[in-house]
Amino acid sequence: MTHLQRLLVGDAAFVTPAHVLESLPAAAARARPAGVPHSLYEELWHTNFWQHLILSVVRDEPVAFPAHAADGWPDDNDALTEAAWQDLRGRFL
Hints:
This protein is mainly α. It is 51% helix and 0% strand. It has five helices and no strands. Helix 4 (40-58) packs parallel to helix 5. The relative contact order is 0.17. The model has no long low-confidence stretch (mean pLDDT 88).
């Protein structure tokens, strides 16, 4: 197992992303604490968006880069459902 794999799936010195996200409900993921510009949902969506895009580039697949930086963020934080949150976590992991 590579160092990157250990960081992502376990056997590392800190909590894995899967463990952090496994019990977090959609309502908590939508929350924006005072002074924080994005919710955990928005940050994970953004990470997923760029992760998928970069992996497509590496695989030499056709890629449409966003025209604006705002296109790399979700449209509606408050519309997140529990099912959509589960799907997003699964795609990230």
